[in-house]
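This is your field. Pick holes in the following sequence-structure pair:
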Amino acid sequence: MRWQDRLAAGIRAGRRTGALPLLVVLLLPVPFLLVVHQLHYWDVPPFGSSRWTVNGDRTVIEVFGYVQLLVAAALLAFGLRRRGGPVHPAWGATLVVMVLDDSLGLHERGGAWLKHRDLVPGSLGCRRRSWGSSSPGSCSGCRCSSSSG
């Protein structure tokens, strides 16, 4: 099957299930937000405010990413329950935990708690705060490294 046929079949399935408009709404703003992020660093008004950067907390881009992850979690938890058994709801729950962890700063607090109590050996080549920052990736089964200190 050619890639054009697979794409057409996917679009037909998306229309039939109603997922296509949702995907467009969630994915279409991404290139715009990346351009806005670059305009922020070029100090182009009205995007000179720090709320348009990808590197900050509670920025427009970060909150939009939370919305994307929560919609994906809801689709996994409720929409695909029949197909994958308990696997899809478990991944949905993991995404919710990751959004809560990042939005509430739990991994930063956990890393600071570990550092304050000297519970992490420094001989492993990882800064102590990185231990807290790597917890969301460890929870989801991804190998993540932290460069922030």
